[in-house]
Structure formats: C-alpha cells, structure tokens
Specification:
This protein has about 450 residues and is mostly helical. Helices cover about 65% and strands about 5% of the residues. Strands 1-2 form a two-stranded antiparallel ribbon. A hairpin with a 2-residue loop joins β3 and β4. α2 crosses α5, α3 packs antiparallel against α14 and α7 runs antiparallel to α15. The termini are close together.
Length: about 450
C-alpha cells in the first residue's frame, strides 16, 4: 500500500502506527519532569525508562525471531565496547568501573541500537524528529518565561538564565534540547516535499532561536551556528541563500523588535572572541581541567586512568588556577557550589579515562556514522527521492554533537536525549540511507 505525501506529517498518522515508537516518546516525555533539587546527576525516570526501551526491544526481537542488526551496524555501534571494557578493568574500584561502563553503554551503544531497531521507516524517523521539535518548544517556552520573569538560573547576579525544567545544576540541559529541536526543524524545513510541513518546521526553527539565545550557552550557540550552516550547504546553495535571508531578517526582529539583544546577551556574545585574551573564571577553569586531562593521558597513554577516574585524579594534575567549583542558584533552587568533576570536553574526558584505545574506538564509531550518513544524503540527492529531510536531520544532529563535545561532555538528565539522538543518526546512517521508501517501491 502506498502512502500519500500528507502522511509524512505526524498528526495525520493513525495513533496505532505509533506503537513501536511509544517507549521512545515516553523517554522524551519524562525528561519534562522538573529536576530534583540537590540531585547529583543520579539516575532519572527517563534513564530508567530508557533501560525498559532496551528490554522491550530485546523481547520483540526474541518473539519475532528477527536478526538484531546487520553486520555493519553491529560493528559500528559495538566499537566503543572495546575501549570501555579495557577502561572498566582499569577503574579505581569495581563499582566505578561497572557504573561507568553501564552509563557509556546506555548512551552510545544500547539505547541507540534500540532506536535503530524500533524505527521501521522514514515516516517513523520523521515522527521522532517532530517529537524532538515539540519537546524543544516546550522547554524553550519554559526557558523564555524564566528569562522574562526573572525566575531562571542565576547569571551575573540576576536570575535570568533560561534552563527549562532542568534546573541550575544542569544549565546546558535546555540549551541541548533546544539545539536538537533546531537541528530537526531545520532539516525538516529544508528537505521535506510537503509544503505545509516545511512551513511549520521553518516557523518552529525561528521560534526556537529565542530560547537558545537566552540560555546564554556559548557552546550551544557555536555548535548550532556551525551545524545549521553545514545543513543549509548540504541542502543546496539556492536554498542556502533563501535561508540566509530568513535568518538575517529573524535576527533583526529578535534583536531590534523583541529586545532579545540585551546588554548581557551582547556581552556574552562578545566574550566568545575573548576566551584567549581575557578569559572569565569559567573559561579559566575549563582550560585548567583540559590541561589536567591531557596530563592524565600522558601518564597512561593507551588505557587512561580508568572509567570515572577523572574526579579522583583531578587535583593531582590541575594547577592552582582551578576554582573550587561553580556557583549555582535560582530557578527554584537554593545557592549551591557545584563541583567540577569533568573536563567539559568529551574527547579529553575519553582520552584521560580510556586512553587512545577508548578514543579511537568511540571516535571511530562516530566517524563511521558521519561517513555513512553523508553517503546516504548524497545518494538521496542524486536519486531525487524523498528522504532528504531525514538525511539533513541526522547529519545535523551528529554534527552538532561532535562540535559541542569540544566544550561539553555527557552528564545530567538531558544526556539520555543524546542517546536517542545518536539512535536517529545511527538509523539513517546504517539503515535509512539505503532503504527505498515504501511509496516509491510500490509505484
């Protein structure tokens, strides 16, 4: 049976067809729960349900007697296990090794593999992409309200930083969610053949610019700007010019008409170019932790110091320039000193704790996904078949994450959404880029 183009819109698809995706959507929905005050990054309800998603997927495979993954998919998604196993053995304690191993397997192996198996076709992919957009709009609305009413996290003495429901302990949470939503919206706007979907996606992308701005996250700004620029370029230069004009007009409206361009926001933007000449304390702390991570790796080049070993070895390798922690308060939480337990650079975190073996294994998996995803995008453009929107969404999500990992790492409630994003990327790179849309196959 062929599907009409209108069925690409999630709200025109029968609810029963969502069944395999409902567990994944439940994970996204649970992320909307407010973060518990005083939590130290423990397991959340969304993490628990992500484990149930893996179990649900395994049960389905056994009942349906399906082959789990293709050989290529198994190799690409399984590559990180090599470095993780070695680093878990070298951990300072069995508990740290098992805990770190479980977290990395959840984010980069098990949950992404489950998403690959649960997504059946490009229509399912679009449904999840729209779920990302919807969740970003919700978190963005909460964040803009926090900024407008002065009920956000503390920033330069004022409680105006938009953090959504993630609280001041995870200031990157809302920025990550909004950025993921932007990547999905831009991809859907640039690649879909349905005019209504392109219009809605474009509107969503423009709306999400405001909460991203008031998140005051320099890293998210840089990653979003770079990934969106690459997405637009991959969609074609003609569309790139049109999108550039829309973005420029939207920036004028946001800054001039709606007052988003406050003095604090302008100062934050200008500080991006001052990270080398006159860095603030947060940048100084980051440089110090980067140096500490590099020093750890130099002492254990192949295997690193072991999973979850960075906090234990930090003080022995960090200089006196490192502060005792970052101050967090606001958004309904009391003042608290947040300890600095990671280098805020995923590549250096992996290098320091897993060594070259771990970095090559994990980085090799990501590089393989990027190459396969781009290959699928080229194939779709050449054949002029539907699916360009899926390709742009997947490539945008992966590019954003790889850029953001230069000054961020895993941690916090929003990390499980990163696992789902890797699942979407992996489906397109390992399955979706090679499949023929059902409508075209039956034509």
């Amino acid at each position: 049976m062929s599907h009409s183009p209108a069925l690409t819109l999630p709200y025109r698809v029968p609810l029963a067809s969502f069944a395999p995706l409902l567990p994944v959507m439940l994970v996204i929905a649970l992320l909307a729960l407010p973060a518990a005050q005083g939590s130290d990054g423990g397991a959340t309800p969304a993490d628990a349900v992500s484990g149930l998603v893996v179990l649900y997927c395994a049960i389905r495979l056994v009942r349906e007697r399906r082959r789990p993954l293709s050989r290529t998919a198994a190799v690409v998604l399984g590559m990180p296990v090599v470095g993780l196993a070695v680093a878990a053995v070298g951990a300072s304690s069995p508990g740290a090794g098992i805990g770190g191993l479980g977290r990395y397997l959840q984010i980069f192996v098990l949950v992404p593999a489950s998403v690959v198996l649960l997504v059946r076709d490009r229509r399912d992919f679009r449904v999840l992409a729209w779920a990302f957009v919807a969740f970003a709009l919700f978190q963005g609305a909460v964040g803009v309200h926090q900024y407008a009413t002065g009920t956000g996290a503390s920033y330069q003495g004022e409680e105006i930083r938009a953090v959504g429901t993630f609280g001041p302990a995870d200031v990157m949470g809302m920025a990550t969610v909004v950025s993921f939503g932007l990547m999905c919206a831009v991809g859907l706007a640039l690649g879909s053949t349905a005019a209504r979907q392109r219009a809605v996606a474009t509107g969503c992308a423009l709306v999400l610019l405001a909460p991203l701005a008031v998140s005051f996250s320099r890293g998210a700004w840089i990653a979003t700007a770079a990934a969106c620029a690459i997405q637009v370029a991959l969609a074609g230069m003609r569309r790139a010019l049109k999108v550039g004009a829309v973005v420029a007009a939207s920036a004028v409206i946001l800054v001039g008409g709606l007052g988003v361009g406050t003095a604090m926001l302008q100062e934050r933007i200008s500080s991006i170019t001052q990270v080398a000449d006159a860095p603030d304390q947060s940048v100084t702390d980051r440089y110090t932790m980067w140096a500490a991570a590099t020093d750890m790796w130099s002492e254990h080049p192949l295997t690193g110091v072991g999973l979850k070993g960075f906090p234990e070895h930090r003080d022995g390798h960090a200089s006196l320039a490192l502060s005792s922690g970052s101050d967090t308060e606001g958004a309904g939480a009391a003042y608290r000193k947040q300890p600095l337990l990671s280098p805020h650079n995923m590549y250096l975190l992996v290098l320091s704790e897993q060594g070259l073996i771990g970095l090559l294994a994990l980085g090799g998996s990501w590089l393989a996904l990027l190459v396969c995803g781009l290959r699928g995008l080229v194939r779709v453009r050449r054949s002029r078949t539907s699916g360009l929107d899926c390709a742009l969404v997947a490539c945008g999500l992966l590019l954003w994450q790889l850029i953001d990992f230069l000054y961020a790492d895993i941690g916090g409630p929003a990390t499980v959404l990163t696992a789902l994003a890797f699942g979407l990327v992996a489906w397109w790179a390992l399955v979706g880029g090679d499949c023929v849309p059902e409508a075209e196959a039956s034509a």
